[in-house]
Specification:
One of its GO terms (molecular function) is metal ion binding. By secondary structure, the protein is mainly alpha-helical. It is built from 17 helices and two strands. Strands 1-2 form a two-stranded antiparallel ribbon.
Length: 344
């Protein structure tokens, strides 16, 4: 018989049942953690030019979903990121790796805007932006080393590897077969987004001394939740405006990316969509035509939402393995609902 997760009785974070999972709570979590990250990255040389650049995106304006998920999983497993320094560092590391990758993504994509302000590469140039991203990742590595856990180091190191392969996967040519395109999309979504959440969740389970099956459940919860989160993000790219998203709307189409809405629209309008996808929406009028098919002439956005909800339900099925506490179960369940109901 499988044993449940190891129990402790630390001070609990405010539960979602009592407080509700609102944007305000997410923003406060992000702001508090951002301040800690900025303190952790302070260089010995106070005249260091790179430090203000590295801190630029740590302004509390991001979604901060990753540290929130880490905190909720820690709570479910009997830990607390507010009182347990090691668990808090996992949350910080997750946000630092994510933010460092955003800086690098903006360089690769030549983005001019991020979170409603000029991107780092637009503000300081490509070279300095790359160095700022590297700086953030280097400090996350120092925090990781301070955990003094070989197992956690191996787990978190997977995230960096997956981010690299995810970027390469995104650059691959779009496959002509729908099933292969779908598998390619889910693989890329895991590598670029869900891996960070899944492996951070597993690291929390390791640091709270959970048995192997609970570690696997934590990983699975993070994996499925992360995939659901990104699928909803891809859907919002066609629904939300630039102010809500914190980046230009239809950014994925403009980058030539075939996300879930594109793939579903191609199922029913292949004659029109496939030529656009093959040339990555680079010809004049391609973006507008694809957007029209997706939003007005197909059920692609509905199917995308249902796909996100399917992965959120898969995450929810892991909850019983993580905690027996009904309040803590509800906290995790609220996360699975939030990722598909959010509008930014």
């Amino acid at each position: 018989m499988l044993k449940g997760p190891v129990r402790r009785t630390p001070r609990r974070m405010p539960s979602l049942r009592r407080a509700g999972l609102h944007v305000r709570e997410i923003d406060m979590t992000g702001s508090k953690l951002s301040d800690k990250i900025k303190v952790a990255m302070i260089p010995e040389d106070t005249t260091d030019e790179i430090y203000p650049m590295a801190c630029y995106y740590f302004d509390g304006s991001g979604k901060s979903i990753r540290p929130l998920i880490v905190g909720r999983i820690a709570e479910a497993l009997g830990g607390c990121i507010e009182t347990n320094e090691k668990l808090q560092k996992v949350a910080m590391i997750a946000e630092m790796i994510h933010t460092g990758s955003l800086v690098h993504d903006d360089v690769i994509d030549k983005s001019e805007e991020r979170r409603g302000k000029a991107s780092a590469n637009s503000k300081w140039g490509v070279t300095k932006a790359v160095m700022a991203g590297n700086y953030i990742i280097s400090y996350s590595s120092q925090l990781l080393a301070s955990l003094e856990s070989d197992e956690v180091t191996k787990i978190i190191s997977r995230i960096i590897e997956d981010l690299i392969y995810g970027e390469l996967c995104q650059l691959e040519s779009v496959n002509s077969n729908h099933e292969h395109r779908y598998k390619q999309y889910i693989k890329k979504t895991y590598l670029k987004t869900a891996s960070l959440i899944a492996n951070s969740a597993e690291a929390v389970a390791v640091l709270t001394d959970q048995p192997a099956h609970v570690q696997q459940a934590a990983f699975n919860f993070g994996k499925y939740l992360g995939i659901a989160f990104q699928i909803q993000d891809d859907r919002l790219d066609f629904l939300a405006d630039s102010e809500q998203l914190g980046k230009p709307a239809c950014a994925d189409l403009k980058l030539g990316l075939s996300t879930a809405p594109v793939l579903y629209a191609c199922q029913t309008h292949e004659g029109e969509m496939w030529p656009l996808m093959k040339r990555r929406f680079t010809s004049p009028g391609d973006v507008q035509k694809a957007h029209n098919i997706i939003t007005k002439r197909s059920d692609a956005l509905l199917k995308t939402r249902l796909l996100a909800e399917n992965y959120a339900k898969r995450a929810a099925r892991e909850i019983d393995m993580l905690t027996a506490d009904p309040v803590l179960k509800e906290n995790l369940l609220e996360l699975t609902k939030m990722v598909t109901n959010r509008d930014k």
